[in-house]
Design a protein that fits this description.
127 residues, mainly beta, 4-stranded antiparallel beta sheet, 0% helix
Length: 127
């Protein structure tokens, strides 16, 4: 059974950095669309970054482009989200998700595109 576990959340001041990790078990991350989503209280879940681990193509939401970087480590079966220049509006629960083995397809930020989800890790950015 595929399971995802996120690590690395925490509290940071605005302008700071955090790196989130997502470890996948029960399957290999190679050749999967892996995504990071976030959900703030009272708001819908939104996609922030995705990577097709079969070829390394990456995708970012406009709100995080240039500040967040998604990457993979096949040896560790782990996907990362490096977050820099954090803003208070980045405060949310961050979730890792695993999708199709064939690629990352539109609508990329639809949660229904992803079959497996982690439990989430909280990121809080203070001003």
């Amino acid at each position: 059974q595929v399971q995802l576990v996120e690590f690395g959340g925490g509290s940071v001041q605005g302008g700071g950095s955090l790196r989130l990790s997502c470890a996948l078990s029960g399957d290999t991350i190679t050749r999967r669309c892996m995504g990071w989503f976030r959900q703030a209280p009272g708001k819908e879940r939104e996609g922030v970054a995705a990577i097709y681990t079969g070829g390394g193509s990456t995708y970012y939401a406009d709100s995080v482009k240039g500040r967040f970087t998604i990457s993979q480590d096949n040896a560790k079966n782990t996907v990362y989200l490096q977050m820099t220049s954090l803003k208070p509006e980045d405060t949310a629960m961050y979730y890792c998700a695993a999708g199709s083995i064939y690629g990352c397809y539109s609508p990329l930020w639809s949660p229904s595109r992803y079959k497996y989800w982690g439990q989430g890790t909280q990121v809080t950015v203070s001003s």
